[in-house]
Amino acid sequence: MPLSVADLAALGNTPITILSTTFPNVYLRMDGTGVTTWNGSGSGVVNCQFGAGPYEKFKVLPQADGSFAFASATFSNVYLRMDAAELPQIPGGPGGGTVNCQVHVGTHETFKLLPQAGGSFSFESTFFPNSFLRLVGFGVTASTNGGGGVVNCQFGAPGGDHEKFFLNVAA
User: Fold this and answer.
1) What pLDDT shows up at residue 1?
2) What is the domain count for the chain?
3) Of 24, 147, 151, 163, which shows the fewest CB atoms inside 10 Å?
4) If DSSP codes are grouped into helix, strand and coil, which group holds residue 166?
5) Which superkingdom, per the lineage (predicted)?
């Protein structure tokens, strides 16, 4: 059963997974290998994985403003980062921008969770208004060492096919 905003605020250190609503069994994957110091443009790899292993588990950190940060459950002090500065402002277009990792929670590492139909959420950047986390998992049908698919940003598409996720307690 997908988690609610109230559930997320009360999880503590319990890890979750971030599952695409469009691509069956395709999860958000964050590889923080070598991400040990702050880098202005971020580093590491965020993409997709078929099934949920260690790189697909996150800890939810509620922020004072009601937003959330997502830390890797595998890589210490590594957070999901979204930079939509270069995102084309074309709703429903091909997406763009950069989604990767950072070693601390700053302006690019916090998200508003917008509830969608069926218990899913869209992730809106708190720093880049109207910019959403986007996952395209075409061809991601088996687990691979490096993951696959595309994770980037989308302008003006809350609730779009590639911008909705189920958040579940990790198995």
Assistant:
1) 65
2) 1
3) 24
4) strand
5) Bacteria
CATH of the domain at 117: 2.80.10.50
Could you tell me the two tokens for 95?
């997406």
Cβ 75 vs Cβ 126: under 8 Å: no
Listed in sequence order, the residues at least 6 apart from 4 whose beta carbon sits closer than 8 Å to its beta carbon are: 115, 119
Instruction: Please give the residue range of the domain that contains residue 156.
Output: 5-169
Q: What is the pTM of this model?
A: 0.96
Output Rg (C-alpha) for the chain, integer angstroms. 14
Give φ, ψ of 8 to 5 degrees.
Answer: -60, -40
CA distances from 110 to 9, 70, 79, 143, 144 (A): 14, 8, 9, 28, 28
**Which residues, in sequence order, are CB contacts of 145 under 8 Å at separation 6+?**
none
Cβ(80)–Cβ(46) below 8 Å: yes
Distance, C-alpha 130 to centroid of its chain: 15
Chain centre to alpha carbon of residue 114: 13
How far from the centroid of its chain's Cα atoms is residue 107's Cα? 15
Tens digits of residue pLDDT in 16-46? 999 999 999 999 999 999 999 999 999 999 9
Contact 26, 19 (CB under 8 A): yes
Of the pLDDT bands very low, low, confident and very high (cuts 50, 70, 90), residue 113 is very high
- Residues 6 or more apart from 91 whose CB is under 8 A from it? 154, 155, 156, 157
